[in-house]
Queue: 2 jobs
Job 1
Amino acid sequence: MENLISLVNKIQRACTALGDHGEASALPTLWDSLPAIAVVGGQSSGKSSVLESVVGKDFLPRGSGIVTRRPLVLQLHKIDEGSREYAEFLHLPRKRFTDFAAVRKEIQDETDRETGRSKQISTVPIHLSIYSPNVVNLTLIDLPGLTKVAVEGQPDSIVHDIENMVHSYIEKPNCIILAISPANQDLATSDAIKISREVDPTGERTLGVLTKIDLMDKGTDAVDILEGKSYRLKFPWVESESILLIPPEYKHLAHRMGSEHLAKMLSKHLETVIKSKIPGIQSLINKTVADLEAELSRLGKPIATDDGGKLYAIMEISRSFDQIFKEHLDGVRPGGDKVYNVFDNQLPAALKRLQFDKQLAMENIRKLITEADGYQPHLIAPEQGYRRLIESSVVTIRGPAEAAVDAVHAILKDLVHKAISETVELKQYPSLRVEVGNAASESLERMRAESKKATLQLVDMECSYLTVDFFRKLPQDIEKGGNPTHSIFDRYNDSYLRRIGTTVLSYVNMVCASLRNSIPKSIVYCQVREAKRSLLDHFYTDLGKLEPKRVSSLLNEDPAVMERRRDLAKRLELYRSAQAEIDAVAWSK
């Protein structure tokens, strides 16, 4: 059981060292979940005397008014017999105090450092550890004495401020309340009992301690209180003075008396509470560690301090973005399939909408054939007319080809935006996020221009050179194909023109089918493939030319995020330390 109390001592010290005082904040608190003994009483109720009797040393500040102005977490450590007693403050970790008058002065000085030389109070605790052969392992929290009025130098709110501070400690269900009440005052007016009853009406976790029995009026005694008749608690009342002060007729109460007995009783109760709370504390710690790690992961790593480290960090973050972008294209993440949809649905549908048969209407054929002949009518076949009809039809494929290039460009831009939003580190650095986004967009624009040029060239190639074999394979009919003996007027009859239109449409459809396959290849080669290979190449080149100050500006981070990361890291350190301490106690068993 002593291991359990030592465990709580260590975790409480770690809490204070790392800024966890149990106050309301945006961070999870471990302090509030730890079992503790809070010493509560009115001013001049004898709180200091009780604590000093437990320790066996005079070490607390004395005086009138509010002497205790900050919570004092007092941790007692039993050491081997014959060892020299000493004290240590958490804020002075390498200094040992063997003079307890100096301990008293340091408590006063440390209080003034936090509150100033005034009568203000502070919720930030002072941690004091005392090592002695004459104590039991125990942790007590001495709270400012309750008061009824503000005195000179104190704000009007001091009464409520102290009550609120005391409440914040004793309202927790894992807190044992050590209620100090002077015997020479009516128990009904006891500040300690009154405030304890507010949070523990059944007295399940309140230990009553009666002080100043030697100052009771003549003819009165404390038997009714000690026997629980005046105010019943679950645990027997304890008298803090020496047994020698108790009249002989009340010696049967001696088993409850004395500071050593009080300390052992408190230790026993604390051990019981700790034992019952450990599983819950372990569960809380494990869950909180996971939550803190997850949030730290979302916030990203802290910024490097040297120029080389910053440049390396930018490169690593950029590569992370680039990898996520590639994963979208390769199907590891969603979105890349939209490119195939352009080739499999959008482009074919656009080609179908061209309606070449309308382009090759009878009047259009007659017009182009006649114009192509010029002053010299064709002799056998209207070759120039064919060329013009084919060119005027094929050139319309430029529209769908250009639209396919733009559609894939839009998809790639969308995938860039998705990759940026999915790159955790880029959320951390807004300037870098903008710079990477701009660099990627500029690269995609260059790739679109190259793709559009190459793809439209494919169409233009089909216009500039016809496939001769197609026409050679056509059946030759001299009589119908243009016998020179026929009159010029027979040459432009509907049947003849219709045959020309059919031939041209057949050729154009063949070209269209070919381009339907070659246009996607050109787009993938010029846009998709290049985006995968060199999306940020220009950015990397320019990055190496930047001044260090400009590089640093890319890693400018929201100050609130930086502060949050620091706070989370400190709190995670606390929880991991507590986790290790609990595990060590478990293994020791």
Job 2
Amino acid sequence: MDSEDDMYDKNDVDLSEDFYSEDDDTATASDEDDSEGDDLIMEAAEKPLKPQKENYAILSEADIGELQKKDITVVSDALKISEGSASIILQHHNWSEPNNFIHDTWFCNQEKIRKAVGLPEETTPIPDVTVRIKCRICLEECPRDKPSCGAAVVKEMIKKHVDDDDAISWQKYGRYLVRSYVEAKQNKIKWCPAPGCDYAVKFDIGRIGTSGISNDVKCDCSYGFCWSCAEEAHRPVDCATVAKWILKNSAESENTNWILVNSKPCPKCKRPIEKNHGCMHMTCTPPCNFQFCWLCLGAWSEHGERTGGHYACNRYETAKQNGAYEVTERQREMAKNSLERYTYYYERWAANQKSRQKALADLHQMQAVQLDQIREKQCQIHGQVMFIIDAWKQIVECRRVLKWTYAYAYYLPEREHVKREFFEYLQGEAESGLERLHQCAEKELEIYLNEGLSKEFDEFRTKLAGLTSVTKNYFENLVQALENNLEDVDSKGGCSKVAGAGSKSFGEGCSKAST
């Protein structure tokens, strides 16, 4: 989990287990194998974590301009040319690293480079012309409004001829240079993908894959994204899984499954028809208007009391016993199971996304208005109420992580029983901790916001800070386990059972996020 937000360490506050622990619903394993399996999973789950290391820097346009100016100055000083000429040369070579360019490119191909970029001789002064311009490359004169030579228009020339009233054009030129610099260094610097954001991120790509290093970055505009794929931040799920999940959410495959499960084609026009209530007598929509039996798809004119009436079909039952519908029913059952499984994980993924958006709005409201109200009502200094902001930041981050764990679970093979049990245990512990923290920050905090001075506020501070710390620890364990592909269990040789409050099977024991 990213560590840009300073959170309380659980050793910083004196906590009672009542603040963050629940009654243990787990029954004691009756045999030695089960007990051993539990010990293996608990040992892996409680493995100490290494802190997240920062491996990026947020840059404003001014910061990028400074980096660009340093590169230009290096080339300008080394080659004894103007900064404008140095800028043209570097831009032509995709803003290569200046020292490498000088030693590996310039001195080997100086004349060729000058000709390619249209670099003027530095000893020739920039003429002060009004009507005709003499090209410093071809020495021909041409109308000022129709220059056709290959000489580069350097920065100094532009600045000399830009009027004081045309400062906007000069600023546009400067922004163009800055953006060309970033776009040429996409392996090191990228623009934040958030709409309207002008910040860029400089990433230490040499540390990708290093222990404790994440591809997720958080811009100063508060948007988090993945450096590698530019999608929203999705640690601990890898980019390939995220791409598959996003594609699946937008693909037509699940719509096809839904149609297969919930509808049947009209025997005449083949349009899909959904039956949501009523008898077996179906009538297709105009202009078809064909009437048929929902069960056997035969013409309704051939049905009546002798075939079972309006709510049954003897023909269907007889044909079914003879295996006539075996292939069709199998396809419908497989589609139903696939659809139910996808729906299960998607609903929880979407619910946590919605809950995160609500928590983010609550965080902004707390920072803008409510924090000062609480501080005044409870007679606290600013630093004594920042634990509330820490809690909400933790909630926002944990909702993001929890959301993506459901995408991870969808692609976790069913045959990986031990890994799945270990994952469900860690996810359950993390989710339970998050629900307790969210409940405390959302509901219990209202007491101190809506009422006057309370003697219990110090106790509330200890409780909320403790829940924040413990929840952070739960999620860090979950994140590390998934980034290690749940190898902590495999390295122990596997285990057959999981006994824990967080363990749950598909379809049960996993609550949706509160909104």
